[in-house]
């Protein structure tokens, strides 16, 4: 079998056009411009790339981008002070604090100091609770992007067995909640799961979010299953060149799967598009 490629790049581009239309209508009809504040503490190179790309796309869809780059020596009090300012700023509808934070900062404390209505990452404990109880929440962007690709491909997901590999708060756990909300039977697998290959072979849908390059080989995949690869791992070849690969071994998985997301160009672009969508949602809710 040759898997259908789930083109997240093209899907996200269409989504950004719809978002830009909404933004233009908000401005024309109500004089409101949605604003997204992104806070980066420290110099992590991967985070710098993500933050730059978020800022660029925010401006491209017509929204305001507020970037706050702080040194890695920033104190918790100073960071909390900045978040309090952003919470109170009516021009800021969404706040994202790029993770990971330097070790001396308490991420839970920082995330939970964001106004839940502006928490476009959906990481605040209130949003986690709302999502877990099936109420209206800000939904984390990466799992939301995965869900959109799955719904677009399958229509209904009801009754499908989804195996999510990875139990992070950012992807694995909220992904499981969203799939459950769409009536999948959900298994969360992780590094201590007994006989992971046998578990994954039962899945109609596999979501790999472990952060280990090419960890899932094709012989773990049930023929015809859908494979969503959340991993973005930079690897260095023998000749010193670098490339990005996912958490699944693309070639062997694509030979067995019914559908698969590529890396790059699969889940990654969806994450940023969903962040922009969440910011518009936050803006609309803030303005009734
Ligand atoms: N670091 C890696 N992914 C994310 C994300 O989705 N949001 C934030 N804030 N930080 C991240």
UniProtKB/TrEMBL annotation:
Q: Where is the Tetrahydrofolate dehydrogenase/cyclohydrolase NAD(P)-binding domain?
A: 140-285
A biological process from GO = methionine biosynthetic process
Binding of NADP(+), residues: 166-168, 232
Q: Which reaction does it catalyse?
A: (6R)-5,10-methenyltetrahydrofolate + H2O = (6R)-10-formyltetrahydrofolate + H(+); (6R)-5,10-methylene-5,6,7,8-tetrahydrofolate + NADP(+) = (6R)-5,10-methenyltetrahydrofolate + NADPH
- Cite the annotated pathway: One-carbon metabolism; tetrahydrofolate interconversion
E.C. number(s) listed in UniProt: 1.5.1.5, 3.5.4.9
Keywords attached to this Swiss-Prot or TrEMBL record, sorted alphabetically, are: Amino-acid biosynthesis, Histidine biosynthesis, Hydrolase, Methionine biosynthesis, Multifunctional enzyme, NADP, One-carbon metabolism, Oxidoreductase, Purine biosynthesis
NCBIfam families the record matches: PRK10792.1 (NF008058), PRK14186.1 (NF010783), PRK14188.1 (NF010785)
Q: Which PANTHER family match?
A: C-1-TETRAHYDROFOLATE SYNTHASE, CYTOPLASMIC, C-1-TETRAHYDROFOLATE SYNTHASE, CYTOPLASMIC-RELATED
Subunit: Homodimer.
Q: What is its biological role?
A: Catalyzes the oxidation of 5,10-methylenetetrahydrofolate to 5,10-methenyltetrahydrofolate and then the hydrolysis of 5,10-methenyltetrahydrofolate to 10-formyltetrahydrofolate.
Task: State the family named in the UniProt similarity comment for this chain.
Answer: Belongs to the tetrahydrofolate dehydrogenase/cyclohydrolase family.
The identity of this protein, by name, is: Bifunctional protein FolD
Provide the gene name from the record: folD
């Amino acid at each position: 079998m040759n898997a259908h490629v789930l083109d997240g790049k093209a899907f996200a581009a269409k989504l950004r056009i719809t978002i830009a239309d909404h933004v233009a209508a908000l401005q024309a009809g109500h004089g409101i411009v949605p604003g997204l504040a992104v806070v980066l503490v420290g110099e992590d190179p991967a985070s710098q790339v993500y933050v730059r790309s978020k800022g660029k796309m925010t401006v491209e869809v017509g929204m305001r981008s507020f970037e706050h780059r702080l040194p890695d020596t920033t104190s918790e009090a100073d960071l909390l002070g900045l978040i309090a300012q952003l919470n109170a700023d009516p021009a800021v509808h969404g706040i994202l604090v790029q993770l990971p934070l330097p070790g001396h900062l308490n991420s839970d404390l920082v995330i939970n100091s964001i106004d839940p209505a502006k928490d476009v990452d959906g990481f605040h404990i209130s949003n986690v609770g709302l999502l877990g109880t099936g109420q209206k929440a800000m939904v984390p962007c990466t799992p939301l992007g995965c869900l959109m690709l799955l719904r677009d491909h399958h229509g209904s997901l009801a009754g499908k067995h989804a195996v999510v590999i990875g139990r992070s708060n950012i992807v694995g756990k909220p992904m499981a909640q969203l799939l459950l909300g769409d009536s999948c039977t959900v298994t969360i697998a992780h590094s201590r799961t007994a006989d992971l290959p046998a578990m994954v072979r039962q899945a109609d849908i596999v979501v790999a979010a472990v952060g280990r390059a090419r960890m899932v080989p094709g012989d773990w995949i049930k023929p015809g299953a859908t494979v969503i690869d959340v991993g973005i791992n930079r690897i260095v070849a023998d000749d010193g060149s670098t490339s990005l690969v996912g958490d699944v071994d693309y070639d062997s998985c694509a030979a067995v799967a019914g559908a698969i997301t590529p890396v790059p160009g699969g889940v990654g672009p969806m994450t940023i598009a969903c962040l922009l969508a969440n910011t518009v949602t936050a803006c609309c809710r803030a303005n009734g």
